[in-house]
């Protein structure tokens, strides 16, 4: 039987070819515009020039490389060999290869694969749902974060994960459960082609579970904000605004769609 990890890896291997050519990611425009990190995220982390940053579950490296443009020495980690190859190629095209390294590893194996600690550990939108146990993720974060270092998480809000497609009623547990949510989707969240490996396994993790997992490993939570916006159209009623932000239409009940968390080692 194919394990959840193998199934998810095959699905994400398929996604790479679709994503790198999608309008959603807009690689050519990204190369031409050469953006730095998201301003909100940059303000939370502070100055990164000369610091060492690791990006867990980096996919094909666009968000990782934006920190390199701000002067950080970046390491991206992903379990997809196709993603790591695409990220390395993108670093070359962007002229950032000297400050960027991409390493093939699942999250749990990252401390052994990397063999060092980092000033910044970065986790970006759409990451935690692919991991079955938030405490194991927190073990990885604690092992990678240097004393006095900064963890930045910007991810999908667990309440949004638990909602049905109508964006109102509950379909899944808000809390981490042993059994995964199993999906069979022939396409991905971007525009573009279909996928060959369609089955994925996902888990939700409540905010309380995330915060407690980090706190019990000695990290100090310094910032936690829940946002009524996200960068994905999770639900059909969401309206796109400036800078690729989606939120509920004016007059609708606001709901948490993403969150940011900062912790210090």
How many strand units?
Answer: 12
* Main sheet characteristics: 7 strands, mixed
Strand order of the largest sheet: 3-2-1-4-5-12-8
Segments where pLDDT lies below 50 for 5+ residues?
Answer: none
Percent range for β-strand residues: 15-25%
CATH superfamily: Vaccinia Virus protein VP39
CATH class: Alpha Beta
H/I helix tally: 9
The end-to-end span amounts to 39 Å
Radius of gyration: 18 Å
The CATH topology corresponds to Rossmann fold
Helix content range: 25-40%
Q: Provide the CATH architecture.
A: 3-Layer(aba) Sandwich
- Please tell me what the overall shape is: globular
Arithmetic mean of pLDDT: 96
Structural domain tally: 1
SSE sequence, one letter per element: HHHEHEHEHEHEHEEHEEEEE
The computed structural class is alpha/beta
Q: What's the structural blueprint in terms of helices and strands?
A:
Blueprint: H1 4-19, H2 27-33, H3 39-45, E1 52-56, H4 62-69, E2 73-78, H5 81-93, E3 100-104, H6 110-114, E4 118-123, H7 134-144, E5 145-156, H8 158-162, E6 181-184, E7 199-202, H9 207-215, E8 220-227, E9 229-230, E10 239-240, E11 246-247, E12 258-264
Parallel strand pairs: 1-2, 1-4, 2-3, 4-5
Antiparallel strand pairs: 5-12, 6-7, 8-12, 9-11, 10-11
Helix pairs in contact: 1-5, 7-9
